[in-house]
């Protein structure tokens, strides 16, 4: 059921960026809650594959991660560059950072992903979070190899998060930085190592999922500060939701879950393209008509990217994944 969860999170990111809700009221908290949930899910899934499929093959892990991330990313970056060249004002209307890079380093950041920050000129405005993901994909080679190391990582991340709160760090420091992102990634890794202590059922997944969505919808009512109490409540609820979904299998939803999961990444990448074009056709920025039409167009574009790009690459990824390891070894000690 992780595919449907990823798809919902990607739609929440689209909502945060395009819905006609003032950013200070809704956009930022919905987007932040969704991104940290993405991080937790990545923490769990990467720990899973590092300690099973790629236990003795870090090179295959890196190759497959690169094949998963870069081909659709490069395609959308080039398409965004073309749109920004012909419609620069549409880009600036959507985000002050959605613009053509300036300077060699910024160009390198935009096409390598590594080094991107949220306040760079960005061909893909949400791509700064991919930089965070890639850094932790590398760090988790070491941090998620055993239960004891992962537990120490989680404790250190929790203590640093507590320090940021006590020291009154601003939201940007508690959200955009690598150190702030360490907590959700470590929680995801912890879910893997302590999975035998966590039970799951369709009832618990439904209840926790409902609580997660209620926190998203009514955070401003529930919490005095949506970027402190609300943010960390979403992390707790998201962690429990991932734990409850990890073994939940509903056969009749298997195909839908797979398709939804496949669409989540291209939706995340390309959801600024449609509104940039639609604004030029007369749609008002931050309007429901723009949001709904962009949502439909983004899903269609994501389907095309998945069919014509990702499915072709998936054959190579599966070939690499199934190649025998030269030195089989048991699961890392706990």
Summarize the structure.
The chain is 73% helix and 0% strand. The chain is mainly α and 334 residues long.
Radius of gyration from the CA trace? 20 Å
Largest sheet: none
Mean pLDDT over the residues = 91
Question: How helical, in percent, are the residues?
Answer: over 70%
Q: How far do the termini sit from each other?
A: 27 Å
The secondary structure category is mainly alpha
What is the number of helices? 14
Query: What is the ordering of alpha helices and beta strands?
Result: HHHHHHHHHHHHHH
Coarse morphology:
globular
Our estimate of the beta-strand percent is under 5%
* Parts with pLDDT < 50 across at least 5 consecutive residues: 328-334
The total strand number stands at 0
The structural domain count equals 1
What this model shows, in words?
The chain is mostly helical and 334 residues long. It has one domain (2-322). The protein has helices spanning 2-18, 23-50, 58-86, 88-94, 104-112, 128-143, 147-166, 171-175, 178-193, 202-222, 229-245, 254-270, 273-280, 288-322. The radius of gyration is 20 Å and the shape is globular. The model is unreliable at 328-334 (pLDDT under 50).
Which features would summarize this protein structure in a list?
334 residues, mainly alpha, 14 helices, 73% helix, disordered C terminus
List the helices and strands and how they pair.
Elements: H1 2-18, H2 23-50, H3 58-86, H4 88-94, H5 104-112, H6 128-143, H7 147-166, H8 171-175, H9 178-193, H10 202-222, H11 229-245, H12 254-270, H13 273-280, H14 288-322
Helix pairs in contact: 1-2, 1-12, 1-14, 2-6, 2-9, 2-10, 2-11, 3-4, 3-14, 4-13, 6-9, 7-9, 9-11, 10-11, 12-14, 13-14
């Amino acid at each position: 059921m992780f595919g449907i969860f990823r798809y919902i999170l990607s739609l929440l990111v689209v909502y945060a960026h395009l819905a006609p809700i003032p950013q200070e009221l809704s956009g930022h908290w919905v987007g932040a809650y969704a991104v940290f949930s993405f991080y937790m899910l990545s923490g769990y899934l990467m720990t899973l594959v590092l300690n099973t499929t790629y236990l003795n093959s870090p090179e295959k892990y890196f190759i497959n991660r690169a094949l998963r991330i870069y081909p659709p990313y490069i395609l959308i970056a080039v398409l965004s560059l073309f749109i920004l060249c012909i419609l620069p004002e549409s880009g600036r209307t959507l985000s002050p950072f959605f613009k053509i890079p300036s300077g060699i380093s910024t160009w390198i950041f935009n096409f390598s992903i590594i080094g991107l920050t949220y306040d760079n000129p960005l061909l893909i405005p949400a791509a700064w979070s991919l930089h965070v993901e890639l850094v932790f994909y590398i760090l988790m080679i070491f941090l998620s190899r055993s239960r004891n190391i992962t537990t120490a990582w989680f404790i250190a991340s929790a203590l640093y998060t507590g320090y940021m709160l006590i020291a009154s760090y601003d939201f940007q420091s508690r959200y955009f930085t690598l150190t702030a992102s360490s907590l959700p990634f470590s929680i995801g890794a912890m879910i893997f190592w302590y999975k035998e202590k966590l039970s799951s059922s369709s009832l618990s997944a439904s209840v926790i999922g409902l609580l997660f969505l209620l926190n998203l919808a009514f955070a401003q009512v529930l919490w005095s500060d949506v970027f402190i109490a609300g943010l960390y409540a979403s992390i707790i609820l998201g962690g429990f939701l991932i734990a409850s979904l990890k073994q939940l299998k509903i056969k009749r939803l298997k195909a839908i879950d797979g398709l939804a999961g496949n669409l989540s990444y291209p939706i995340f990448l390309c959801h600024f393209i449609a509104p940039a074009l639609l604004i030029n056709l007369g749609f008002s920025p931050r309007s429901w008509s723009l949001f709904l039409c962009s949502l439909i167009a983004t899903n269609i574009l994501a389907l095309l990217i998945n069919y014509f790009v990702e499915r072709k690459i998936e054959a190579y990824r599966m070939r690499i994944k199934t190649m025998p390891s030269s030195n089989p070894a048991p699961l890392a000690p706990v």
